[in-house]
Write a structure and sequence with these properties.
The chain is mainly β. Helices cover 6% and strands 55% of the residues. It is globular and about 80 Å long. It comes from Emticicia aquatica.
Length: 781
């Protein structure tokens, strides 16, 4: 198998290199346009007279009165643009990929500065988060397509950064600094939305529904613009999250010309279109549809281990700028997915207990919204978002009779979550040293939940408002110091719980290339619905845990960043999370809600548990310069919890260490052809499992844990190498990319979990995904 695979890679490499080499006599390179707008980072006013230079070409332009700029007839390739203006930090926008099939349209945000410091290395489409000075990563669509092992999913790309690990190969669950994936919040255009992932039961022990993860993101990477991923001590505009926030923004379509993209690969078939809506305005559209490759195979009767997996999604963004009443966008996304497992109708072929089950899972998700942005005078920016999102999951498991294969319902799970959100905020730039941001996010949330098995049941419904006003004052008391002071308030009207949360961050410029930062925040999060809806055994109409308070955490982060030459930096972050108000079971001293993902309980809970997460992260990143890039990081951490017995134990995701290395190289084989390769190595400390009482499990013919030995079994370390090779070819009017992405190229067996198998009568170790080759072809025109 390995020999055949490496032969494929070898011949593709030779073919790509030879194909590119054969056309070296071409003397006319394809050209394209780089254009966009430069705005103030605080009030988003267009900036006139800003100087922009493409470093490798020395081509230079200045922005016009509306902040617009244009570089015409630029040869395709990789570029860096230096942006400078009096009173603002000089920035270098890195990793710009210019292809013949699409114009490059940038929105560049400049930060005001009191005294001119060394240039700041940033990525295109940077965010404007007030108060974010630590624990934030900017994620670009170009990286999603270039890095190996991403499945074109921003959540999987996020695991290449320090402090972040994947919960399981089959899912995009993000374990941030030892926290459960349940601590993650997803946002779209600045408001909370429901779980935006297909197959939310993927990669779990019980095959049940999760809150914040799934097999792959519903929103195609074709639509994603600037994304911010926060991992701790969030600014005051963020609440109702303990571990991390994935803040997704949509890009606008090209408002000057129509462009199209088609992509075929193992993930699915993507088709996208964008362009102007009218010749008389700058309005634009962007639409994408995707259908899974596994779904196409399922239509032809092909299954994977007896499972039929399918998904499809549609997403869009319409942009309507006006001259007098601001800018409007209308956006939406929707997805359908299913996973059907048919048990074998021949008992002689039953190997594990799952072979004797039929399992049906369905998922429906949708979101739609409207945004408005308007400058009120020279110093004030007003933003408003209205959005509605909904998610419905259904799962049924039937055990098959060994005699006539009659089906008997053994598990039934369903959930319905709706959110209607309204967000509005004002950004006021008082002067160069002071700015103020005030806003409120109000969400009407409806939850309906059912989870039942032979001995447990959680069922109920709830609705209420989640009210989150906030403010942030950014000021510079001295030239090298930037301070953010903020306050966030969280109120859930369903059970009348509330929390006042102070936020503080400081950034001090030590030298022209060194800075030190500190951030603190008190953060809270609403409990998962399966905890609120635990059923009383006597009175089934009484929700015994409906009055649970938020889980809360004090976040402290200390950061040092050293900007190096040639577009690289080295960053160190030291963090501590003091978690309290954690739900625990009164009669089970080892239980803690910090270890839950898809599990539930019908026991009475109280907010008496605690947790401690602390660690240190080291990151070196070399942005793509002269055909080479590197992202290397190491995290040493400890994540523990304390139950009712007062004993500190390892939490479920306390892997102790995370090591990531991503390196890539591109060769310009001719004027219009580029060959690239990239490699990612992941090494994680093994997670913890509950100890299984094998003797009791055999005697009772069901899985029984050793109640006193919670999370004492450490899994072996996790190791996975991913590899990607691609060839880009550009003509005058279109560009094409052929890529081979191989996850776990070494086919290393990583442990997923252990369970007691009723059929085999022993404890079985389940493994994660092995080698998966993903061949794709992308055409932009």
């Amino acid at each position: 198998m390995f020999k055949s695979l490496f032969r494929i890679i070898f011949f593709i490499s030779i073919y790509c290199g030879g194909f590119a080499q054969s056309t070296k006599n071409e003397i006319t390179p394809a050209v394209q346009t780089i254009r966009g707008k430069v705005i103030d980072n605080i009030n988003e006013k267009p900036l006139a007279g800003v100087s922009l230079v493409i470093l490798s070409t020395q081509k230079g332009v200045q922005t016009d009165a509306e902040g617009n700029f244009l570089f015409g007839q630029v040869a395709i390739g990789r570029y860096q643009i230096q942006v400078s203006s009096v009173g603002y930090e000089t920035q270098k926008v890195s990793e710009i990929l210019l292809e013949s099939g699409k114009e490059m349209i940038l929105e560049i945000r400049l930060k005001p500065t009191i005294n001119q410091l060394a240039e700041a290395v940033v990525k295109a489409q940077s965010s404007n988060l007030s108060g974010a000075v630590t624990s934030i990563q900017s994620i670009t669509t170009e990286q999603i397509f270039r890095f190996p092992g991403t499945y074109l999913d921003p959540a999987r790309l996020a695991t290449a950064y320090a402090g972040v690990a994947n919960s399981n190969d089959q899912a995009n669950g993000m374990v941030v600094r030892g926290n459960s994936p349940n601590g993650i919040q997803w946002r779209l255009e600045g408001v909370e939305i429901v779980n935006p992932n297909h197959l939310s039961n993927a990669g779990t022990f019980s095959d049940r529904i999760t809150q914040n993860s799934g097999g792959v993101n519903i929103l195609s990477a074709q639509l994603l613009g600037n994304m911010s991923f926060l991992t701790g001590a969030f600014p005051s505009e963020y609440g109702n999250a303990l571990a991390g926030v994935m803040d997704m923004r949509l890009r606008n379509g090209n408002n000057k010309k129509h462009e199209f993209t088609a992509q075929v690969g193992l993930i699915g078939i993507d088709v996208a279109a964008e362009g102007p809506l009218s010749k008389n305005s700058n309005a634009s559209y962007l639409v994408n549809y995707r259908y899974s490759f596994t779904g196409l195979l399922g239509l032809m009767g092909v299954t994977f281990g007896g499972e039929s997996i399918t998904f499809q999604d549609l997403s869009f963004n319409f942009n309507f700028p006006t001259k007098k009443v601001g800018n409007f966008t209308f956006f939406g996304m929707g997805g359908l997915s299913s996973n059907t497992f048919a048990g074998l109708r021949d008992t002689t072929q039953w190997v594990v207990q799952k072979d004797g089950f039929d399992i049906n899972y369905k998922n429906k998700m949708g979101a739609i919204g409207l945004t408005h942005r308007m400058n009120l005078g020279a110093k004030l920016l007003w933003k408003t978002v209205v959005a509605a999102s909904g998610l419905k999951n259904e799962r049924e498991a039937f055990i098959l009779s060994k005699t006539n294969f009659q089906r008997y319902l053994s598990q039934a799970d369903s959930s319905l979550k709706n959110k209607i959100s309204f967000s509005t905020n004002l950004n006021y730039k008082i002067n160069t040293q002071n700015s103020l941001k005030i806003g409120v996010l109000v969400t009407h949330q409806y939850d309906e939940f059912l989870a039942s098995s032979s001995d447990l049941k959680s069922v109920g419904h709830a609705q209420g408002l989640i009210v989150q006003p906030y403010f942030n004052w950014q000021f510079s008391p001295i030239p090298k110091l930037t301070t953010n002071v903020g306050l966030h308030y969280l109120n859930y009207t369903f059970n009348k719980t509330k929390s006042f949360e102070p936020r503080l961050s400081l950034n001090y410029q030590l030298t022209k290339n060194q800075s030190i930062s500190f951030a603190y925040g008190l953060h809270s999060q609403i409990q998962p619905p399966q905890l609120y809806f635990a059923q009383d055994n006597i009175n089934s109409n009484f929700l015994r845990n409906a009055l649970l308070d938020f889980t809360k955490s004090h976040h402290y982060v200390l950061s040092h960043q050293f900007a190096l030459k040639r577009g690289s930096y080295f960053k160190t972050e030291l963090y501590y999370q003091k978690i309290f108000n954690v739900p625990v079971i009164l009669f089970n001293p080892t239980f803690s809600a910090l270890n839950l993902v898809e599990d539930f309980t019908n026991e009475p809970l109280q907010n008496l548990g605690k947790g401690d997460n602390y660690g240190i992260e080291f990151t070196y990143q070399q942005f793509l310069t002269k055909g080479f890039y590197t992202l290397a990081n190491a995290t040493l951490y400890n994540a523990t919890y304390t139950g009712l017995d007062g004993i500190k134990r390892n939490s479920r995701y306390n892997g102790k260490y995370i090591f990531n290395l991503t390196i890539g190289k591109e060769w310009e084989r001719s004027k219009n052809r580029t060959l690239g390769t990239s490699l990612r190595l992941v090494w994680l400390g093994g997670y913890y499992e509950r100890a299984i009482n094998e003797e009791a499990s055999i005697a009772n013919k069901r899985l029984i844990y050793k109640s006193a030995d919670a999370y004492t079994v450490k899994q072996p370390d996790y190791f996975r190498p991913d590899f990607r090779i691609y060839l880009k070819k550009s003509k005058d009017k279109y560009s094409r990319t052929l890529a081979l992405d191989i996850q776990n190229i070494a086919s290393y067996q990583n442990v997923s979990y252990s369970y007691y198998d009723i059929l085999q009568g022993k404890v079985i170790r389940q493994y994660q995904l092995g080698l998966i080759p993903i061949l794709s072809y992308r055409w932009e025109f």
